[in-house]
Amino acid sequence: MHDFISYFMINPTALYIAVGLFSLCIGSFLNVVIYRTPKMMEQEWRQDCQFLLHPEQAIIDETKFTLSKPDSTCPNCHTPIRWYQNIPVISWLALRGKCGACKNPISIRYPLIELLTAICSLIIVAIFGPTLQMLFGLVLTWVLIALTFIDFDTQLLPDRYTLTLAALGLAINSYGLYTTPTSAIWGYIIGFLCLWIVYYLFKIITGKEGMGYGDFKLLAALGAWMGPLMLPLIVLLSSLVGAIIGIILLKIRKENQPFAFGPYIAIAGWIAFIWGEQIMKIYLGH
Ligand SMILES: [Zn+2]
How far is the CA of 111 from the centre of ligand 1 (A)? Predict the structure, then answer.
């Protein structure tokens, strides 16, 4: 471990190349996570509902959907995707954005998410260097990318990721990795409560539900990673990010899509994680 760190201290380029290539592959995996997690959840809900409503019937024996099974196929012609068709970015370019068998177009979103993952990961490397903070910073980045796109697609923020992220934040900060243990605990509590209060006020005033519980859990997780002092910045930044992306999407799609707040919290959280202290210093004027 020590040899690794000192090697990368002497050869920062090697670190950038290693993390760059590795995170392209992670990006490819995140595409699978983003596509499959909502489907896995739907399958679980369906089975739960069936079990509750018709306990006498056997559960329909459908193929269980997990992150690794069944193998990836083309959504159009169901031809299995070979390993050499699954190389991040390069395969998409080599296939010119089409399925190798049926020539059905493959969304440009796949290589873009791989590139985004690599770029965000390299920024983490540039900020933290070869440290434990870099390692866990990469994990945070990857989970936030998955959550952003899952929520954007489906208006869902799966507990399995938000709550795991929160637990991980509390665990690493019990050793003071990014903030003190006390600050992590209060970040978690206040992160959850502040959106919960907004949610309740909104419900009392308008009689509608304006956001999901997933949003509270995500902000709680970010609080656990960065402490309560970052929360006002995250909330402010998320409205800013939301306004900018909202305007862009309105121009592109010209139609009213369901509103998800989670992606903006995730993006704002990541910006605060990287540049939060600098932004606060500039803002507070010292
Ligand atoms: Zn195909």
Answer: 17
- C-alpha span between 31 and 114 (Å, rounded): 8
CA-to-CA distance for 131 and 104, rounded, in angstroms? 43
Of 16, 25, 276, 17, nearest to 126 by C-alpha is 16
Contact by Cβ (8 Å): 215, 254: no
pTM for the model stands at 0.92
The CA 44 to ligand 1 mean position distance, Å, reads 27
- How far is C-alpha 128 from the geometric centre of its chain's CA atoms? 20
Q: How far is the CA of 154 from the centre of ligand 1 (A)?
A: 24
Residue with tokens 């997990």: 66
CA of 43 to the centre of ligand 1 (A): 24
Cis previous bond, 181, omega within 30 = no
Quote the ligand 1 centre to 254 CA distance (angstroms). Answer: 30
Q: Which residue has the tokens 């803002």?
A: 283
Give the DSSP letter of residue 74. -
In order along its 286 residues, the chain shows pLDDT tens digits of 678 788 888 888 999 999 999 999 999 999 999 999 999 999 888 888 888 888 877 666 667 778 888 888 888 888 888 888 888 998 899 888 898 888 889 899 999 999 999 999 999 999 999 999 999 999 999 999 999 999 999 999 999 999 999 999 999 999 999 999 999 999 999 999 988 888 888 888 888 776 778 999 999 999 999 999 999 999 999 999 988 888 888 888 766 666 688 999 999 999 999 999 999 888 887 6
Distance 63 CA to ligand 1 centre (A): 21
